[in-house]
Every structure is written in C-alpha cells, then in structure tokens.
Amino acid sequence: MTLRMFAADLLVFSSIISAAWCQSALKVSIPKSLNTTSGSCLLIPCLFNISKERENILESSPEVTWRRGSLWSLYDTDGFTIDQRQKEPVMEVVGDLRKKNCTSVMRNLTSLHSDRYFFRIQAENFQVTETKAVQISVSDSLAEPDVTVPVLREGEEVNLTCTVPAPCPSRPPNVIWDPALGGNVTQRTQMNADGTQSVSAILNFIPLLHHHELKVNCVSIQNLHREDRPLLSHKMVILSVECEILTKHNPPKETWISFTDLVWLGDNVTLTCQSKANPPAVHSWFMKRAGLEEELGISHVISFTASHDNTGEYICEAQNLYGAMNSTNLQINVLGISFTAFLSILAALSLLIFALLAMTIVMIYRRCKEAIMSETNQDQNIYANMSASAVKNKQLQSKPNDEKTCTINPVYALKHDLHDETIYANC
What we know:
This protein is 22% helix and 38% strand. By secondary structure, it is of the alpha+beta class. The longest helix has 59 residues, at 339-397.
C-alpha cells in the first residue's frame, strides 16, 4: 500500500467517524477489483443495504457518486476545481436505487483513470461513503483468453471452451476459434458470481488422428472507437488426441517417412519418421540393399551425406507398448554426379548454345546486308541505262527538218518484188 493510498483510507475513515450516527447505515457489495480496456467502458456490479430508518431517502432520488482515492483530499474543498473534476470518468448509475441496486457504468476510460473508487450516496440531511473500494485498472491491451481443453479421444465428440471478460456489456468482444476444425462454434454471454460478465466461444467437434499435435488459436477481437483497427488477443493450444482408450492396447495406426527431394551425390539428406500413436512411438530405421536389410539406428530423424552407398530402400518402424507398424518403403537413388557438377555442365552447355546462336545471328545479318547492297548496285545500273536511252532519244528528236525522209508504199513494194535492202537503199 502506497503512502497516498494510506492517506486516502485515513480520510475516508475520518469522514465516517465524524458522522458516527450513520456508521452502520450503509453496506455495499462490490468486486475487489475490475479490469477494462482503454477506450471502452466498465460495468461496476453494485448492491447495497441501508438502515430501515433511512430507506425513505431512496424514494427521493438520492445522488450517487464514485469518488477517486487519489482526489479524496480535494473533495468538498475549494481546491476541487473544474480541472480536477475532469479527471473523473463519466459515470452513470444503471441500477434501480429503489431496489438497492447501485450498478454503475464508467465510460470513455483511459489508463489515467486507473485508481481506487469509493461508493457514496447523498440525500437531504444524509450522506455516507462506503469504506471499501473497488480497484479499477484500465489497460491498453486485452486480457488473454482462458481456454479449457478436456481429454481428447479419437471419434468422441467434445467441447473446447474459450472465455474472455466482457467488462463493457454494450460492446462485448467477439471470440472465434482458428481453425474451427470442421466443428460448430457457439458464442454466449454469461454472468459471473461477482456480477461481472464474460463471453465464451464453445467449439464442438469430433477429434480425429490428424488433429493430434495441431495448433489451435482462440482469438478475442474488441472493436473500439479510439482506433480504426480492433484490438486482438489470442491464446494457442496444442491438441493431444488419444488414439483410443489406452486399455484397448492399440498400436500406431499411421507411419510414414517425410521426404520429397531428389538426391545428388554429396547432398545433405534428412529423413523424418512420423506416426500417429498414443502413447508416442519409438522409431527405428532400416535400409534394404542388394537383398540385405541393415538396421540404421533408433531415432525420429536420420541425416547423411549422399554417396553411392546410400542408394537403397529405407523403412521406418514405429513401435509403442501396444504394437508396431512399418512405413512404406522409400527408394532413394543417388545420382552419379554431384548437383554442383551438374549445374556447371548445364552452365557450359548454356554458354555454348548462346555462342552458336550469336554466330548464327551475325551470319544472317551479313548475308542480308550483302543482298541489300547487290540490289542497290543493280538499281543504279538500270538508272544509268535509262538515262543514256533518254539522251539518245532526245538527240534523234532534235534532227533538222530539211533531212530527207523516205516513205514506201507496202503494196508497191510487194508488186515489184522489192527487198528491204533495195527499198531503203533507194531512200
């Protein structure tokens, strides 16, 4: 107890002693402590008894307040200013005072409101303060869920229960199971013995072998006005599923080897044996090679550096007090070259292909270039010939008009049996 708390208690007791006539007039039933989240509200369960001679004040709507322990010395003094009053949370009495129910709700709480609070009732010519206080703690995080897991047996229906406090009934948290295991989830709100409330999510499902050692989370989600995102709290449990009732002496039901990779010479290889057994099984390893079986040892996991001697069939045996079961055979073939050498060869082949491709592109480019140049030269020669013909035609067209021209009638030429040479010679 701090010095401030001790001083507050002294002030409370002194105020009660100064009004000795009402010492036994009020008895209040409240929780010793309550917890809530910053930005939320808090329900304070409260019941009271008052002496019979004072019960008449309940009909006149008496004033009910909750006084902070840290501000006790300032109440009813000039030092209790508006600034001091603003340090008090917003309070509302929701219980029926005429039925002696003083249940109240604090709103807009922050961590600065964490304190001890004393119940006070006041009417005309009567006022009294309860000497017992409720310790209120306001946190910036949610309380961790409380998870109840019964004994899980294969094939037997069971309930997993996750419970979280609901200090603000008007804004209860949402409770979920993740994963839901293919079952049904029921959410309900219940009243606790001290008058507080809580929310439970009940997961009803049938445990199976593949649920054994599965991680399941109970998640509490609280939506608050103070932030855009909700607050989260969770608790994880690891399920333990019994195959059947142990008195039936059941051996392991499933055994297998976990391994999916290729094996190259020089690789580091790890084989894992897994089984579904309760109680847990002991695992033994064997290898078959050239018709002979060799025991490799007892272990959950075996590891080795791959060589040609490691080529063979691997078997895992799971055994407990009630029997044994072998896995299917796993054939491992160690490739003749190491994976590093294979990558080097692959890289060399890639470079060779790239070089051939580059040479092919260069040759194609050169041939295309030569063809284009040849076509260009032909076009130039054609252009030169066409130019020369045009000049010659122009010279022929520019002959003098007085030059003799010869015109022979074709009919005349045939009639006189004249040949071309004679005709044009005469011209």
